[in-house]
Design brief:
single chain; 603 residues; alpha/beta; Rossmann fold; 3 domains; 18 helices; 41% helix
Length: 603
């Protein structure tokens, strides 16, 4: 199976940039002193053998090739050499053919011409990328900051690369903007299970897009998207411009997606490529091979993880870092191949090669608001919710037949049970989201209301050494836990929603605030946010509201007035008046009534 790097077709006709640079000119084979042959991919006894080039002839050519190509095998007489036909090797092959006249065997002509054509298209497309990134086709609804525009240009210029910005810098938006500018469909987005809802929410938020449906008229000119969660592989699934699937079931959908003609594959949390020899890896490799573009996204700095990083880069762009042996010799600590000895130098190399682009928040601080609120859609545990909500349903129904006092008591208890069931059902996905922040080494405050939820988070995040300030600790224990967080002994502190008042000093480290559960009062959230967003804060603060479609979340998030993504200026940032507080209380009562009606309608 030949692995070719296939730069994307340009969204508009490529302008004529005149004469090609010297390294891309077609080589002259007059007076050839060597011959190039092509050995197609085939199955070996133990594993598949990738396609290779074979050079035969002058020892000068063979010696030069031996020095240039990772994993090359030359004959003892140095008259023949075999090396991988990776697209990553083509520029070096062309350099040899520019220096020495090399004849191309008839059997190799088609493969060589294909890689040569793609090399030219890649060069011309890189020249076009800045204007292509700026030229929307009218379906992108967002506004990109300058550094995000740079990220879009990077993706458009590099058909197989990784965008590794810090969490919160908008990798999702940049990927969607690049796909819209590229205009090659369908696109498949592969994500972790707990963030599939995030993508399903962001697609219509930033693109003029609607869900693909059979037998319905679609908005002319709008894109369509399909959420493959919970669906069976079936040819009757409506065609879509964007398919969203998660890693755990990708193997079942790979053939379907390839048959649908996928052009672009976007791999969220691309570190899923790090393990070889798995069914998931095989599915990923098949999808990469079939796609013209393979873009990886990751907020985790993985380029110091040695062999894991090789596996990730090799998954997105086969052969771009050479063979495992050469990679270890060049980049890894000889005592431990899992560790890159000079991660900064390696990161600079990846950037210079157009393989990876990484921006830290501190790098683009001037372009960021001091505080940004974002709603992150997460999935809840339906089984857990269904079991725990039963008590809330029972109480809500019984309350209708009680006197005023008993009715009020049971309705309040029903609401408490419904909130707790919602929070507990969200806890696993919330912990997975928080883990991604902590793996990126970002100090984070986590707010939740119920002890049951606190305990679930503490257990799931145990490997990060979390501390808590939840109302169950003594004053001395609270102060001790606060100091552990402030001194950098841990990057995660779990707090009760209403235990944040009066706690100072957390802003000196905190970069993220995460709300796993919500309060009825917007002012409580404003106070919690202020633990991080206050005098002494040197970073942008990202505030994440983790919302599911279960239980009390839909009503409570609308009560809080948090929009999908908003900068500083809402939720009491300018100071709430007494009138605002009265309106908030009235609105809260309306939302509580809506939740009770919802509970009474459940069986």
């Amino acid at each position: 199976m030949q692995m070719l790097l296939c730069p994307p077709s340009p969204p508009v006709d490529l302008p004529d940039y005149g004469e090609l640079p010297p390294y891309l000119r077609r080589p002259d084979a007059s007076g050839a002193i060597a011959t190039l042959e092509y050995v197609a991919a085939h199955s070996g006894e133990k594993e598949d053998i990738p396609a290779k080039w074979r050079l035969s002839g002058s020892s000068a050519v063979i010696l030069m090739a031996e020095k240039m190509f990772s994993g090359a095998h030359a004959s003892a007489r140095r008259d023949t050499i075999l090396f991988f036909a990776w697209s990553a090797n083509f520029d070096d092959l062309l350099a040899i053919m520019q220096r020495y006249p090399v004849a191309i065997d008839d059997g190799a002509r088609a493969a060589w011409e294909a890689q040569y054509a793609e090399a030219i298209r890649s060069y011309r497309f890189r020249a076009l990328a800045p204007s292509a990134a700026a030229a929307s086709r009218g379906r992108f609804k967002g506004e990109l900051k300058p550094f995000q525009m740079e990220g879009v240009q990077f993706l458009l210029s590099n058909a197989r690369g990784i965008l590794a910005d810090d969490m919160g810098l908008g990798k999702t938006v940049q990927a969607l903007a690049a796909a819209e500018a590229l205009d090659e469909w369908p696109v498949v987005v592969v994500a972790q299970p707990h963030v599939q809802s995030h993508w399903i929410g962001k697609i219509p938020e930033f693109l003029r897009a609607e869900k693909a449906r059979s037998g319905f008229l679609q908005d002319a000119g709008a894109l369509t998207f399909a959420d493959l969660r919970g669906m069976k592989v079936d040819a009757s699934i409506p065609a879509a411009d964007i398919y969203v699937v998660h890693y755990l079931v990708l193997h079942a959908w790979t053939e379907f997606l390839i048959e649908r003609g996928v052009k672009v594959a976007i791999f969220d949390e691309v570190q899923e490529f790090r393990a070889k020899g798995t069914r998931k890896r095989a599915a990923l490799e098949a999808l990469v091979k079939a796609s013209r573009c393979a873009w990886g996204l990751s907020g985790t700095p993985i380029y110091n993880h040695g062999i894991e990083m090789l596996n990730v880069m090799d998954g997105v762009n086969p052969g771009c870092l050479g063979t495992r042996v050469d990679f270890q010799m060049r980049w890894c600590d000889h005592r431990d191949p899992r560790v890159v000895k000079e991660p900064e130098a390696f990161g600079a190399y990846l950037s210079a090669r157009g393989l990876l682009l990484r921006r830290r928040k501190k790098d683009v601080q001037a372009q960021l608001p001091s505080k940004m609120r974002v709603i992150e859609a997460i999935d809840g545990d339906n089984a857990s919710f269904a079991e725990m909500i039963k008590e809330a349903v029972r109480l809500a129904k019984e309350a209708e037949f009680e006197d005023a006092f008993e009715r009020g008591r049971k309705e309040a208890e029903a609401l408490r049970c419904a909130r707790q069931a919602t929070g507990r059902a969200k806890a696993p996905a919330a912990a997975a989201f928080i883990t991604s922040l902590l793996e990126a080494d970002q100090p984070t405050l986590v707010f939740a209301h119920h002890h049951l939820v606190h305990d679930a988070l503490l257990a799931t995040l145990a490997k990060f050494g979390p501390v808590s300030i939840t109302g169950r600790e003594s004053m001395a224990e609270k102060d001790y836990n606060r100091r552990l967080y402030m001194d950098g002994e841990t990057n995660v502190c779990i707090l009760a929603l209403r235990a944040a008042t009066g706690i100072d000093g957390l802003q000196h480290r905190t970069q993220n605030v995460v709300f796993v559960e919500f309060d009825w009062s917007p002012a409580v959230h404003a106070q919690a946010e202020d633990r991080a967003h206050r005098m002494g804060q040197q970073h942008q603060v990202m505030v994440y509201y983790l919302k599911s479609d279960l239980g009390t979340d839909p009503e409570m998030i609308s009560l809080l007035g948090v929009k999908e993504a908003q900068a500083l200026g809402i939720l009491g940032d300018s100071g709430d008046s007494q009138q605002d507080a009265n309106i908030a209380r009235e609105t809260a009562e309306e939302k509580k009534s809506a939740i009770l009606d919802m509970l009474r309608s459940m069986r």
